[in-house]
Amino acid sequence: MKYQSPPGVFDIIPNEEREPWRNSIIWQYVEEVMRAAAKQYGYQEIRTPVLERTELFQRSVGETSDIVSKEMYTFEDRGGRMLSLRPEGTAAVMRAYINAQMSTLAPVHKLFYIGPMFRYDRPQAGRYRQHHQFGAEAIGCSAPEQDVELIDLAYTIYQRLGLKNLKVYLNSIGDQASREAYRNALRDFLRPHMDRLSNDSKVRFEANPLRILDSKDPQDQELCRGAPSIQDFLSPASREFFAGVKECLDRLGISYEVNSSLVRGLDYYNETVFEIVSSDLGAQNSIGGGGRFDGLIQQLGGPDLPSAGFATGIERVIQTMLRQGVAMPSAPRPQLFLIPLGQTAARQCFGILGDLRRRGLAAEMDFTGKKLGKVMAYADQIRAQYVAVIGDNELSSGQVELKEMATGNKQHVALQDLPQFFSTQAN
Question: How far apart are CA 45 and CA 39, in angstroms?
């Protein structure tokens, strides 16, 4: 029987050429860029379990959200607990923050994570049942500069990865008073069209009508075109905060477009929300987004602290890079490939190999004992920089002939001088 992976999940393997976005070399590079940028901005890594109690997401993300109502992988374990594979990262980070009592350690915490998330969704380009996210969360700061730092971090990551045609969409969904006033106005606007709303939007009409603005149903989208703008219902405090966000973006030179229908798909957001999109990814063009979610930590049983964050899908980032023809990293290559001739040479070479590696040299060796022509072909395939064939003569003389694979040039080097030779090459 030939086993296949389940629908909507995939393997990430080295040197994948048929579907380059699954090439682990590219994934490592993208993650390294993300980690380096996060650390530069003062964010530290946090790792949470892929399993959480289901009620954590019901309470934070919202029971009427698509994620909780349709997309979560949920099951009862042998202890009778309802558990879910995490569909997003923020709720788990906040839960970990509360459990570790991190608020007692410092007034502000800036955290980032990289890992798989799980949603039962129709698989399509850039959208999978197991997908991977990079996310950053800032806890303890209520300044508009904090929101903009997160937007800037996301934008910087995309720029360092070489992404083009980026656009930042920005909105404010205000404080609680602003949203309540807007909910009432939105219900008044939509009530005459109730019979034409999708079933999901009819449910959301009372629970959270703002979510109707986020509907993917074409008829819902058409009905919402003439809806009132939340910008007209912002309280003075929310209006001032949003003005501060826009001013900070202007100071950083990050262009943006205010989109009054942008609300994000999760219930915990307030004040600032944003998305960064690329026109090269098709209908699902968002590669990252986030915003402010003051009150979420208190809602989950922790202290009342301001917080904000964003997440970006790594699959979408890589696919956008490929579509835009961004230069991709190549596979690592050994500096030296040793080819022993015979059993005695193989034992000696293995000791030499270990010594070179302990000295920091990227070295490999043939273990197969195949014919020299086939082994040389393999050394060329893995792009070895130099090859040394070692037999009895080389061992007795203490000299090896190094062949540079790219040029065919050869030179003799003493075995004991190999580390120094490659150190000089690196400089």
Answer: 8
Quick check: pTM over 0.85?
Answer: yes
Tell me: domain 20-175+235-323, CATH 3.40.720.10, correct?
A: no
The count of other CB atoms within 10 Å of the CB of residue 49 is 12
- The single residue listed with the structure tokens 């923050």 is 97
* Alpha helices, DSSP H, located in 41-70: 54-60, 66
The tens digit of pLDDT for each residue in 137-190 reads: 999 999 999 999 999 999 999 999 999 989 999 999 999 888 888 888 889 888
Give the residue range(s) of CATH 3.40.50.800 domains in the chain. 336-426
CATH code matching the domain that covers 336-426, chosen among 3.40.50.800, 3.30.565.10, 3.40.50.300, 3.30.530.20: 3.40.50.800
Give 413's Cβ-side CA count (13 Å radius): 20
**Token pair of 151 as six digits:** 């937007």
Phi, psi values for residue 340, rounded to 5°: -80, 145
- Alpha-carbon gap, residue 151 to 168, rounded angstroms: 9
Q: In which residue ranges of the chain is CATH 3.30.930.10 found?
A: 20-175+235-323
| H helix runs in 54-143, sequence order | 54-60, 66, 90-99
Distance, in Å, from the CA atom of 128 to the CA atom of 9, rounded to the nearest integer, reads 6
**From CA 341, how far away is CA 353, in angstroms rounded?**
15
Query: Cβ(20)–Cβ(328) under 8 Å?
Result: yes
User: How far apart are the C-alpha atoms of 313 and 323, rounded to whole Å?
Assistant: 16
